[in-house]
Amino acid sequence: MPKLIPQWLWPSLTLSSQPPADSPQHQWLQSQRDKVNQGSWSAQSDVALEEARRLFDAEQERRRGADSKAGLYLAAITALMPILATILPSLWGENISKTLAGTLLVIFICALIYLMRAGFWALQTIKTSATAQLGAGDIADSFSSDKPEEQLVKQLLRAVIYNYNGTNQKISCIKMTHEYLLRSFFCFVVFLAVRAVWPVAAWTFIHIHNEIVTPLMSCLQ
Q1: CB 3.0 to 4.6 Å from 41: which of 7, 36, 48, 140, for a disulfide?
Q2: By C-alpha distance, which of 132, 172, 176 is closest to 155?
Q3: What is the pLDDT of residues 149-175, one digit of tens each?
């Protein structure tokens, strides 16, 4: 079914906890698991362990970074709401034309909808999700085996692979938050521009109509 609203106007993203079994992403993850299970790092176990720790820490940092950005965005959106509420009464003043008030109201509502949608995606980002973390039992099992360092490498890499989906979803959600915040910011810029330019444009239109169009029409009659 074709999308009725284009992506540039209303970005959309479908989240799924697990990719389908026949999807390229699932096949890639399975191939990564097979390589880890079949791999052997006995000759360079210290190097492999260091790299596995680096990958594990990098994935954890990606996750924490997305959560931190989402928290900042939510705080900013929450702080903006009372400020935006003070704008509405000024749209219905006696000295403002109904056309201008209606135009500003439509732009304001669009900006507010985008802002609320950005908040929704920020909440999706910080939503609690399953993550793999090595515990005391995993480390004990690794060092109880014949090749403790190699077993620990496999445990770390399995955790990294397991966390890929959840971390990538958080990154996707924070990108959607960016998209909606940008559209909200653009709407507010348009709102301010229309409010600033409208009186000048109205005066110019009336001046041209009275000084040029009306005399010209009188001459043609």
Answers
A1: 48
A2: 132
A3: 888 988 999 999 999 989 999 999 999
| Of residues 179, 178, 197, 168, the one with CA closest to residue 73 | 178
Task: Tell me the residue type at 56.
Answer: F
Tokens coding 93: 């003043």
- DSSP letter at 96 equals S
Closest CA to 81 of 121, 108, 100, 101: 108
For residue 134, the SS3 value is coil
DSSP 209: I
Exposed/middle/buried for residue 203 (C-beta within 10 Å: 0-12, 13-18, 19+): exposed
Q: Residues 6 or more apart from 134 whose CB is under 8 A from it? A: 155, 156, 159
Q: What is the pLDDT of residues 49-61, one digit of tens each?
A: 899 999 999 999 9
> pLDDT value at position 1?
34
**pLDDT tens-digit series, residues 61-76:** 999 999 999 999 999 9
And the tokens for 120?
């929704």
